[in-house]
Amino acid sequence: MAASKNTVEIGTVIAAHGRHYLAQVGEEKLQCVTRGKKSDVAVGDKVNLKRTSANQAVIESIGERKTLLYRSDQYKSKLLAANVTQLFIVVATEPGFTDDLISRALVAAESAGVDAHIVLNKTDIVAALPKTRERLQVYRKLGYPIHEVSAQAEPDATRDAFLVLLQGKSTILIGQSGMGKSSLINLIVPDADIAVREISAALDTGKHTTTFTRLYTMSDDTAVIDSPGFQEFGLYQLSEGMLERAFREFAPHLGKCKFYNCHHLTEPGCAVLAAVESGEIAPMRHQLYAQLLHESSQKLY
Ligand SMILES: Nc1nc2c(ncn2[C@@H]2O[C@H](COP(=O)(O)OP(=O)(O)OP(=O)(O)O)[C@@H](O)[C@H]2O)c(=O)[nH]1
Ligand SMILES: [Zn+2]
């Protein structure tokens, strides 16, 4: 029997589309809205709900978040997911990926206190493997784990490796289009396609089935979140202090610049610039830092 209208129930937000949400409450999926114009609910949020009908509810409040991942442009920020413990960036031997997106995702993870890993898919395309490994070396040196898999050529080994990595965690997968993220999700979550159809019917997203973030519950303490591919990963919301700390290789040099308020851009006696000069910090990473600092100064909200 459905709970009475006045009981507060606890659910997990498993999909968001505009200001419409789908929450998992036990075995049920409830269509939810927020009160008023609030739209600060993220996939992964634990929410307190009050039912308005058998399969609908209003989100009364959001439980305390362990983590919150978000991105933003000049005008507003966009919640990606709440309560995730790790972020997997999916790349492939082919087609090519951009370092910009990888580093932005790493910065987002660092500033949210989320562990970041890189998944290199399509290792079966051996001709492109050495070059790809070489490109990922910069991240390996920074200490980010890199997992090599092949969703297509070694599905069983790939699934097994993932299940170990995901166990007990809440993991969000992100990646550029074509990297094989959908193939990996389908391996890990056997009924993913059915779940997506169910969710998009409930949220009435029409044909835009791949444009929303959704959460798959694997077990009580294990969840996987699939996020749509995006071209832009703006991080306008990060302050200068957050940015310099999100580049983990800057850490040994922070506080050692000549000027205490050094921006690490052109200042004389800058310890970060000296480390770039000596090859200790990759120029590509410092360039992205400068770019992100520029973006955050353009923030209009
Ligand atoms: N050779 C090879 N191809 C793969 C592998 N995994 C996926 N692919 C192929 O790569 C292409 C993209 O895979 P998808 O799973 O659709 O990739 P996606 O990252 O979800 O991309 P979008 O759906 O565009 O976001 C498909 O043609 C897959 O068949 C792999 O391990 N090896
Ligand atoms: Zn400096």
UniProtKB/TrEMBL annotation:
<keyword id="KW-0690">Ribosome biogenesis</keyword>
<dbReference type="InterPro" id="IPR012340">
    <property type="entry name" value="NA-bd_OB-fold"/>
</dbReference>
<feature type="binding site">
    <location>
        <position position="262"/>
    </location>
    <ligand>
        <name>Zn(2+)</name>
    </ligand>
</feature>
<keyword id="KW-0963">Cytoplasm</keyword>
<feature type="binding site">
    <location>
        <position position="270"/>
    </location>
    <ligand>
        <name>Zn(2+)</name>
    </ligand>
</feature>
<dbReference type="InterPro" id="IPR010914">
    <property type="entry name" value="RsgA_GTPase_dom"/>
</dbReference>
<dbReference type="InterPro" id="IPR027417">
    <property type="entry name" value="P-loop_NTPase"/>
</dbReference>
<feature type="domain" description="EngC GTPase">
    <location>
        <begin position="82"/>
        <end position="231"/>
    </location>
</feature>
<keyword id="KW-0862">Zinc</keyword>
<dbReference type="Pfam" id="PF03193">
    <property type="entry name" value="RsgA_GTPase"/>
</dbReference>
<keyword id="KW-0378">Hydrolase</keyword>
<comment type="function">
    <text>One of several proteins that assist in the late maturation steps of the functional core of the 30S ribosomal subunit. Helps release RbfA from mature subunits. May play a role in the assembly of ribosomal proteins into the subunit. Circularly permuted GTPase that catalyzes slow GTP hydrolysis, GTPase activity is stimulated by the 30S ribosomal subunit.</text>
</comment>
<feature type="binding site">
    <location>
        <begin position="175"/>
        <end position="183"/>
    </location>
    <ligand>
        <name>GTP</name>
    </ligand>
</feature>
<dbReference type="InterPro" id="IPR004881">
    <property type="entry name" value="Ribosome_biogen_GTPase_RsgA"/>
</dbReference>
<keyword id="KW-0699">rRNA-binding</keyword>
<keyword id="KW-0342">GTP-binding</keyword>
<keyword id="KW-0547">Nucleotide-binding</keyword>
<feature type="binding site">
    <location>
        <begin position="121"/>
        <end position="124"/>
    </location>
    <ligand>
        <name>GTP</name>
    </ligand>
</feature>
<dbReference type="InterPro" id="IPR030378">
    <property type="entry name" value="G_CP_dom"/>
</dbReference>
<keyword id="KW-0694">RNA-binding</keyword>
<feature type="binding site">
    <location>
        <position position="257"/>
    </location>
    <ligand>
        <name>Zn(2+)</name>
    </ligand>
</feature>
<feature type="domain" description="CP-type G">
    <location>
        <begin position="73"/>
        <end position="233"/>
    </location>
</feature>
<comment type="subunit">
    <text>Monomer. Associates with 30S ribosomal subunit, binds 16S rRNA.</text>
</comment>
<comment type="similarity">
    <text>Belongs to the TRAFAC class YlqF/YawG GTPase family. RsgA subfamily.</text>
</comment>
<protein>
    <recommendedName>
        <fullName>Small ribosomal subunit biogenesis GTPase RsgA</fullName>
        <ecNumber>3.6.1.-</ecNumber>
    </recommendedName>
</protein>
<keyword id="KW-0479">Metal-binding</keyword>
<feature type="binding site">
    <location>
        <position position="264"/>
    </location>
    <ligand>
        <name>Zn(2+)</name>
    </ligand>
</feature>
